[in-house]
Fold Anaphase-promoting complex subunit 4.
Amino acid sequence: MAEEGEELEVEMEASAASGPIPFQLQFDKPFPFQIKIAEWNPEKDLLAMVTEDSKVLLHRFNWQRLWTISPGKCITALCWRPDGKAISLGLEDGSILLHDVENGKLLRSIKSHNVAVVCLNWEEDTQLMRGDNKYTYEDRTMRFFPPAPTIPRMPGLGSGDTGLMDDPVETYRDFSNSSHQRFNILCSGDKDGFICFSIFGIFPIGKINIHKLSVSSPFSDKRATYQLHNASIRKVALSKNLRQLVVLSLGELVEDLVTLKGKFIHRDGELVEPDKSSCGEDSSVGMHCLILNTSIFLNRKNELHQVALQASSIEDLIEVVRASLSVMSKQWSDTITSFHEKFDSLSSLIVDHGLESNSQDEFLSLLFGARTSPALHQFLVNSLGEVGLKRVSKAVDNAGKDLHVVVHEHLQPAVEIIGFRIGELRGLSRWRARYQTIGLDEKLIDNATEKAGMLHVQVERFSRVLATVLYQLQNFFNWVSKCIKILLSDPTDQIQPPNSELVVIFLKFLLDHDPVGQLLEADHTIDVDPDTKQRVEQLVMFGGFLDTKFLERTLANEFSQLEQCLKEAFLMPFTTISKKIHCEDLLPLYPIPSSPVASSLHAPTSISYYKDNRDSSPHDLVDYICFRIPDESMDLTNCIGIIRGSTNTSSSIKDISSPGAVLLCIPDGYHCMDLSLYKQREIVLLLNEAITTSESPGRSWMMMVQISDLSFMPLSRLGPANLWKLHELKASALDLHIENGKVRCIPHPVTTPLAVSASRGVACVFSSRRHALVFILDEDEDETSDME
């Protein structure tokens, strides 16, 4: 393999011996995997790659592998968090996984979609990146509380019970803290046309269906609107200021003149059935660019940041409470099961001896000095014995200690912080002018606040019940131990004297009942005597609350009600923000035939944002969309389209500026495998020779084109005639030449993907011989030396 790499370098040097060689080859490494996705870390010299069998590999720039993970499901998308500290994976089942970059541990598993996630994009607020701390929000929780509790590590809680895996203690806390430092949004699109938005990548804040979006054409006399039918998303890109979202989607563009009464259109004042020509059944199917207005993220980023910070932290703590209840339920259930396995054998012995009593009667008779029955004697001396009693007593004691630890170190702190954070949200919700706009409903938050208070009461109640039951059990065990020793004629002076009255209470109320286990059951109702119920109702209503039946609910049931209240409260911002995201423009790119070939469906695309020197504001960016046009589309062969300035924020029709576009013709005999927009308005192209043979497998070329040197032609916006506007630029298409510009020959064919890092100035290319080649794109010696 090393010799093969050396031969490759010699061939590459010889291919350009006539002049300086652009794109210095940093290294060439054999790579035994077929790669389908590759992305450079935006902040570090790390490259994440997804293999054909859906394993994720993380390599340093020197090709040192840091870790490998395998989710066990097909990975369909990948992107980095803007700070480079976490990576998100989209799966075929609609899940999104968030992994820690340091060790690959799973931080979150979120089910945002019902079908395969096909694209991911993660952006953060650029104002905070520039050091603008005017609107930073201080989380006051740290002033009053110690660090948030973690999920308890105890038997009985599987890794999949909480959506957190792989040691969910330190990584869980670190992810929660770091993700909240800057306001960022993760966008995900699926193959059914749904786009989800999540703040910090974990708090869902919106979801749209592009099939239900419509856009009006300002240049149509009919003021017609258009919609996409049967659309599937290919790529999404949120602008750096979070104001707009560019969506590339394959689908059918339909002029939406259909009435609400049926599938008929208005024509000359009459309702008539549309024909194929009016619906554009064939000509309107293709790749389209949708511009979605997401200015709500920009305009209300401070409010959204505060709500998401509190809400996502509450949801983290909810997982702690859920896991704590699960741990306690299993621990106590196992303990009580072992208790009954030992003591229920007395019932069988009573039946075998033909007695008409029960276990409670037998124990009470023994307590009150009656003669010990043969069944009870056999049970105490032979079936249970001192050893069996010690095992049961130790199991109960250990379970009690474990439950106390869970309550005091995990459950109770989590409930207290939940109450405080909901109180913070309650204060925000009363600022109606700012927070009603994003859907923070005061009434729903008030309900959640009351439920959080009731859950705290239930935790205190559970602690008291647990302590009482444990004391009763240990007193009962002491009495049974004393009885066994008396029957065996052993001394009893070392046994703590039991309380006979408590033994009676235990036998009557606790021997066959489990009040601790009942409090951990969600579907159990607790009986409360009428007098107590009446006094509680009076006190609750005197305090201004509405919940008068909390004593009848268990701890688990109270938690379920809090979860439901929080779900309703957090659903309001989700629904409100979703309604405020709308389509403000739509630009058809190119058509595809009714029976498209694979090249049409998977043509490479790239979206980036560059500073616009024409704009007075140094922070505003202009979008650039680059894509390969399939050969069977618009009578164009081997062309690449570039569109500049498709996004627009003007509200006046006369001020709407048309986007610019240019067509680039790939040299004859070459085929564009992949492309990527690069910094300083450049595009990197990866070309393969179109004709290859077994004797001559062909070569490939990496070419860089300066977009700033191209002449962009105005592109008219969506109108009723000539849907595919790029066809108008066919006559002015620019021919590219291998002999000119920055071009590097690679003596082997290459495969997708092309991974380009703008921050590091490098590109990783994968050859058909399963080699990974990393090139330095920038010729700046200082930058190259920094990379080394």
User: Anything to note?
Assistant: Residues 186 and 407 are 35 Å apart (CA to CA).
